[in-house]
Amino acid sequence: MNLFRFCSGLKVLGYFMILLVFAVVAVSYYAVVVNTWWPILIESSNRGLSALACLIISLFHFLLVMLLWSYFTVVFTDPGSVPEHFRREHGGGESLEAGTSTDQGAFGSIGYCPKCRNVKPPRQRCVLKMDHHCVWIVNCVGARNYKFFLLFLLYTFLETMLDVVVLLPSFIKFFSEAIKHSSSPGKLASLVLAFGECILYHLDAVLNLAFVLSLLCFVVMHLSLLSTNTTSVEVHEKNGDVRWKYDLGKKKNFEQVFGKKKAFWLLPLYSKDDLHSITSLQGLQFPTRSDIIP
């Protein structure tokens, strides 16, 4: 199987996944805001309940804006590929044999990609610091958009968790009543009709619960990779218990992805200072541990 053609074929599926993302967002918006908490906000005479509705609606919109901002940023940001000047500076790909390394130094070895027929910087697989190809964003995740992908995961997890918290109680209450009145055919029929009217909201609660559980696994996995400065591809390259050569400690590992400016950590963008001072954000040079020979 030609994996590169297969990866390209995933783009067709990816466009469908983008539509699915918007569909899930639209259903959640209707279920949480339009149908549940907005009516409470404008109709309830209970100040405490109205304040709670205002808080939930505000938090929902904030997380939604951050989710969509992160999503569009990771979709439209090029993860990075080998630039022309890098090929020229390292002799181009024509004079190299597949599987060879050309340079050794503080930033690790320079290799060769037989598919691209070009030299490659450390940690590179056709995409700079390749992590994986994600069908949900119709893009690869690499050096220049990994932070945006992590923020997309984070805000999606928080948004779906909020949806579950505000929708799941009504879902449980509905089915508790259905079980309680199951002995009465007339009442059961009325409940079935009621279920037909609100199935969209209850289905949304179940879907969001499934998303929360699956997203939690992804968040934990990528936090683990982030803490050791490892990509999904590099997990298979580590040598046993030997410490990874790019693992500079949790603080420096975090800064290589999120930058040093704390004000930008939760935003899908970088400060100009970080873009110029942190070489790893360009995906070409990665400092290694001094106690490990590259």
UniProtKB/TrEMBL annotation:
Signal sequence, renumbered to the chain: none
Ranges annotated as spanning the membrane: 12-37, 49-72, 148-172, 209-228
Domain notes: The DHHC domain is required for palmitoyltransferase activity.
Domain Palmitoyltransferase DHHC: 111-237
Membrane topology term: Multi-pass membrane protein
Keyword entries, A-Z: Acyltransferase, Membrane, Transferase, Transmembrane, Transmembrane helix
Keyword check for DNA-binding: no
Localization terms from the record: Endomembrane system
Name used for this protein in its record: S-acyltransferase
First-level EC class: transferase
InterPro entries hit by this protein: Palmitoyltrfase_DHHC, PFA4/ZDH16/20/ERF2-like
EC number per UniProt: 2.3.1.225
Substrates-to-products reaction catalysed: L-cysteinyl-[protein] + hexadecanoyl-CoA = S-hexadecanoyl-L-cysteinyl-[protein] + CoA
Keyword Transmembrane helix in annotation: yes
Assigned protein family: Belongs to the DHHC palmitoyltransferase family.
One Pfam match: DHHC
